[in-house]
Amino acid sequence: MNKIKFNIKQLVRQNVQGLKPYSSARDEYVSDGSTMIFLDANENPYENGVNRYPDPQQRSLKTVLADQKEVAVENILLGNGSDEVLDLLFRAFCEPKVDNVITLPPTYGMYKVLANINNINEKEVLLTRDFEPNIQEILKAIDLNTKIIFLCSPNNPTGNSFSVENITKILETFNGLVVIDEAYIDFSSKESWLKKINKYPNLIVTQTLSKAYGLAGIRLGVCYGSKDVISVLNKIKAPYNVNELTQQRALERVLNQDQVDLEVSKILKERNNLINIISNIPFISTIYQSDANFILVKVDDADMRYKQLLEKGIVIRNRSTQPLCENTLRFTVGTPAENKRLIEILKQL
Ligand SMILES: *Cc1c(COP(=O)(O)O)cnc(C)c1O
């Protein structure tokens, strides 16, 4: 049962509510494909492939995503990486010095950084020992000014997905926005929460082309949410926030789903292989379950092991400063050759 009283008008910042967005040339006249002479945007008319402003609504790309994910185009907002999308959420819904958000460490560091940049109080409710949301403590932390709860599932750096029961409980009791960051969903066997955006008006799902899709360099983040939420974000985004080259490369890639699937399956095979082999490394005491393309492990002395690997030319992430992550290291799954080299070195140490 959905008990929440969700009211978008109460959530949006007042200045955003009344805002009249910038209307760009490409917003005012949308090409219908017929041959027109465009003298409206002060562009250089000589063609070089990118002399024209990009589509501010990224229609071609959104149409393909909408079709693949079985949502409406109006449920999608695209950004310059998910980091931009997350920043837009702060700017649309969180009043500086007044509102707060809840994050669940150990988790992705950007939520806190963005809260700080936007001068929003960030309340931290630690995950439980088995890296699940602590529902009791989260409910206690919520107050009238709590606008967003950030859930990262599969979670970075722990690698696990949160249980359906826990996420459902939060969605069904919190009147603000619940952001589920699914940056690693393509590596997970669990179902995406995307299917639920029409059921829960407070649900926002973010995904990215930076991980499984292999396009970290082009910066393309995707936000799925109710039409009301998306239209608020659309009002405040920069008109041309996703550039033409990014739109083209992203479109090419999402249309080549077979190649993405092939690479993901190779990475998963490598991940499982790595887990099997490193379970025999004496200084690794725990290998945490992973639904992502990385593995978190607990070792005897993370600082020392990190340095030893660096000396051998392998860069990993030391996550020991994060709560509940003492002496942990995070390895991204590489190519078979890279993983082979990693294993050789781990065995030597
Ligand atoms: C890598 C990552 C992202 C990706 O951010 P982009 O800005 O889209 O590259 C988002 N969330 C989490 C948890 C990540 O680990």
Structure description:
With 349 residues, the chain is α/β, with parallel strands linked by helices. 36% of the residues lie in helices and 15% in strands. It has helices spanning 8-11, 14-17, 25-28, 59-69, 81-93, 110-117, 135-141, 164-173, 227-236, 244-254, 257-278, 302-311, 336-348, and strands at residues 76-79, 100-103, 121-124, 146-152, 177-181, 203-208, 221-224, 284-287, 294-299, 317-318, 328-332. Strands 1-7-6-5-4-2-3 form a seven-stranded mixed beta sheet, sandwiched between helices. Strands 8-9-11-10 form a four-stranded antiparallel beta sheet, covered by helices on one side. β4, α8 and β5 (177-181) form a beta-alpha-beta unit. The longest helix is centred in the last third of the chain and has 22 residues, at 257-278. Pyridoxal-5'-phosphate (PLP) binds next to α5.
Question: Which bin fits the share of residues in helices?
Answer: 25-40%
Give the distance, in angstroms, between the N- and C-terminal Cα atoms.
54 Å
Distinct ligands: pyridoxal-5'-phosphate
Tell me the strand order in the biggest sheet.
1-7-6-5-4-2-3
Explain the layout of strands and helices.
Elements: H1 8-11, H2 14-17, H3 25-28, H4 59-69, E1 76-79, H5 81-93, E2 100-103, H6 110-117, E3 121-124, H7 135-141, E4 146-152, H8 164-173, E5 177-181, E6 203-208, E7 221-224, H9 227-236, H10 244-254, H11 257-278, E8 284-287, E9 294-299, H12 302-311, E10 317-318, E11 328-332, H13 336-348
Parallel strand pairs: 2-3, 2-4, 4-5, 5-6
Antiparallel strand pairs: 1-7, 6-7, 8-9, 9-11, 10-11
Helix pairs in contact: 4-10, 5-6, 11-13
Bound molecules: pyridoxal-5'-phosphate.
